[in-house]
Amino acid sequence: MDGLFYAALVFFSLLVTLQSGHALYLTLYTWNRPPEEAKAPEHFLPPMLSFTVMLPARHEEAVIAGTIERVVRASYPSNLIQVLVVCSADDEGTIAQSEAKIEELRREGYGNVSVVVFHDKPINKPHGLNAALPKAKHDVVTIFDAEDDIHPDIFNVVNTVMKKEHVKVVQAGVQLMNFDSSWYSALNVLEYFFWFKSRLHYHARIGAAPLGGNTVFFDRELLKNIGGWDEQNLTEDADIGLRLSSTGERIRVVYDDRYVTREETPPTLGQFVRQRTRWDQGFMQTLRKGTWKMLPTRRQRWSAAYTLAFPRGQALLTIYFLFALVTMFSLKVPVLVALISWLPVFMLVATFGVSVIGLYQFTGAHGLKASPGAVIRMAIAWFPYQLVLGYAALRAVRRQMQGINNWEKTQHVGAHREALSGTTREPDEVPSRAA
Fold first, then answer.
1. pLDDT the model gives residue 125
2. With pLDDT > 70 as the criterion, what percentage of the chain qualifies?
3. What share of the chain is helix, strand, coil (3-state, %, to 5)?
4. Which of 307, 320, 327, 403 has the fewest Cβ atoms nearer than 10 Å?
5. pLDDT category of residue 413 using cuts at 50, 70 and 90
6. Fold for domain 1-435?
7. Is the pLDDT of residue 432 over 50?
8. Residue 77 burial (C-beta neighbours within 10 Å; 0-12, 13-18, 19+)
9. Domain segments of the chain: what residues?
10. Taking Cα atoms as reference points, which of 281, 272, 279, 286 lies closest to residue 402?
């Protein structure tokens, strides 16, 4: 019996080590690729494409007016930008704030902004997007979240990429900014940093890309042809990305620190857990739905299934972690078994080291400063953060098993705007804008 237990312990330790090594490879994927594969073009083509911007919002009174303002004042011809603020009829506060800002902008000559109000259910983001899609008039449809600070030149970037490279789907970078506002915020910021800067490029390159929920640009007719978004899916972005990948559509990912869309970490731990639960459960839904099975190659199917199954794996890893803590102090095993069982710990140390380097790269790119104290706080928070992620994964598994599928809203307070208010670097310090 002991031999069987030791074999299981060795097998699981090696499996976790391999998984950690693969995750680390994806985290560093673009560091071994030519920079031009990921970055935005250095020179922009003249504006040719027109854009319909969808701003799905629910109870976003605190941030929606500033987001509308940033979109309409982007460095792109205003007649080529249509803005649709998408709200449920019961969200009177956000509707009122949006209409007040729209009226103010109309007096200044910006007339192509309106509110799309839907009255039916479900009350969630994909349903709102589908309700607004028939009102989209322009060539390209894009989504920004209600709290997003977009870069003024993002439309120039996408116009140039789509025209030069003849692609119909572009995922641009999204970056959380307030890395020092809570004990978990630096680690959350780095998740976004490595996902959009590296991991998503790998998925796009092999043709199995779960897209992000905003700053993603679709050819309007392509979007209509695939039927819009799945209204029952909690990660409609991942689902639509894999549906597009299964048709063979090329997805171009652009991550350039100069042009990222800036967002904030969830303001409280409870908000963070609910957001992560929604993402985990959405991945489980997409895995069960089976869109990934339609991908043409085995490598694509394996990659998509691995990514979508990760929340379940994370739930199992959390149970394993708690088991490992107990056995570290109570179980005596042969030396070789003990050494192998420590391999996942070494991978965690390596991952933390990469995260520290990533923190300094992120802050340096955005004119922020990471102190040694920030690294110490991140080290202290490392294991608690993993446990929080594990708890969210377990919560998602429970909700999925119980058939609970409601949309848990994440609150936005504009902390990313406060985080940048003291910096001297302006977001529109960019290279030349015409070729």
1. 96
2. 94
3. 55, 10, 35
4. 403
5. low
6. Spore Coat Polysaccharide Biosynthesis Protein SpsA; Chain A (3.90.550)
7. no
8. exposed
9. 1-435
10. 281
Residue 70 token pair: 């940033």
pLDDT band at 326 (very low <50, low <70, confident <90, very high): confident
Nearest to 100 by CA among 136, 134, 61, 130: 61
Across 336-355, b (16+ Cβ under 10 Å) vs e yields ebbebbebbeebeeeeeebb
Separation CA 130–CA 316 (nearest Å): 36
DSSP code string of 338-377: HHHHTHHHHHHHHHHHHHHHHHHHHHHHTT----HHHHHH
Distances, alpha carbon 271 to alpha carbons 56, 256, 276, 397, in Å: 19, 28, 9, 18
What pLDDT does 427 receive? 38
372-406 pLDDT, tens digit per residue, is 999 999 999 999 999 999 999 999 999 999 999 88
Tell me what pLDDT residue 323 has. 76
Residue where the block lists tokens 């307070």: 413
Q: In Å, how far are 128, 211, 221 from 228, measured between CA atoms? A: 11, 14, 10
Beta strands in 111-197 (DSSP E): 113-118, 140-143, 169-172, 174-176
C-beta atoms surrounding 219 within 10 Å: 18
